[in-house]
Amino acid sequence: MAESHLQSSLISASQFFEIWLHFDADGSGYLEGKELQNLIQELQQARKKAGLELSPEMKSFVDQYAHRDDGKIGIVELAHVLPTEENFLLLFRCQQLKSCEEFMKTWRKYDTDHSGFIETEELKNFLKDLLEKANKTVDDTKLAEYTDLMLKLFDTNNDGKLELTEMARLLPVQENFLLKFQDGNGYIDENELDALLRDLCEKNKQDLDSNNIPTYKKSIMALSDGGKLYRTDLALILCAEDN
């Protein structure tokens, strides 16, 4: 099934979902190692079998990752490689989701009760808003389809809603600050928090003052568990109201 989809000149939202599930064998939400190499190999074979050349996006992708052992891509990167349905693709190209700072501003807009979750209806409004900002409209049926697919793609614990750490997968891999928690035991220590804060301050100079990093760090680490700051701890901090 994935082979026939990879041969298509235009991949629908549902076909994109099937392709992702096919290659994300461990369900991690990212393609790396053997998964990524399988994608590259099957993509090349499928296009060749159909008598099709690789698109410029596909060729660039293959050139970048074919000979790397440390490559890693998320759903966003794959959506840019494959000829995906335009309106669905726009959800991954939105300017509001290209950096962690803009992502958090968008998140807070829809997580109005600061629960750390976006419910199904909130997600539907979120997607509708993104499309409208791109001057695109879809009917209720298509919007419901997109909402359902987004839940299937990102709702890793199948609770019918998206938490911050799940929704953050809409960010490009290099911008996803929560990936720092995927190494080891799912937490960062004070030194790693320091590096994370410096990176955030550098990218968001208007709102964060690097001179206040020691204060930020002290306040955040006060909520840690014996010097270990878990992903859920940081998510709660980021979802809180701005002071």
Automatic annotation (TrEMBL):
It holds the Pfam family EF-hand_7. Keywords: Acetylation, Calcium, Metal-binding, Repeat, Vitamin D. One of its GO terms (molecular function) is vitamin D binding. The keyword Nucleus does not apply. The keyword Calcium applies. GO terms for cellular component: cytosol; dendritic spine; nucleus; terminal bouton. PROSITE patterns: EF_HAND_1, EF_HAND_2. GO terms for biological process: regulation of long-term synaptic potentiation; regulation of presynaptic cytosolic calcium ion concentration. Gene3D superfamilies: EF-hand. Residues 11-46, 98-133, 142-177, 182-203 form the EF-hand domain. Interacts with RANBP9. Buffers cytosolic calcium. May stimulate a membrane Ca(2+)-ATPase and a 3',5'-cyclic nucleotide phosphodiesterase. Belongs to the calbindin family. This is Calbindin.
